[in-house]
Fold Thiol:disulfide interchange protein DsbE.
Amino acid sequence: MLRYLLPLAAFLAMAAFLAMGLSRDPRAVPSVLIDKPAPAIGLPVLLAPGQKLDVQALRGQVWLLNVWASWCGPCRDELPVLREASQRHGIALYGLNYKDKPEDATAWLARNGNPYIASASDTDGRVGIEYGVYGVPETFVIDKDGRIRYRQLGLITPEIWSSRMLPAIEALK
């Protein structure tokens, strides 16, 4: 009897795990940084290498950190959404150019338009690692106290902006 129940129990356990996995949103990757202070950036600003992007100087305002790269197609696709969202809603938009050559990133911004107040150049990806970046694009909503309150993995569409990001930002104002 036991030799029949053991395979059945194993099958039911595997089926339960499969059902749990299929019911989850694959884009919902939890971040250990939610509600924690945003890591320091302190990297040179792409278009002003003598300046550094300082997270502490941004305290007192809600702002977005968009992780992007010139080699990222979806990053180009989300630029119009980011531009309009930041302008229409008065949200400060900063960039983190991730694992990119500064000359490629500068040319990309000139070609596609620059929606960022400033964009730090993270050529080796060190700061991206501190933010837990999985890939580009990723966007973080950071509150007035400098804490990460929301993380968007992947492309920001108008629907994602209006249904997820804007409500998160409005709740922080």
About this structure: The chain is about 40% helix and 20% strand. Residues 64 and 141 are 5 Å apart (CA to CA). The first helix runs from residue 2 to 22.
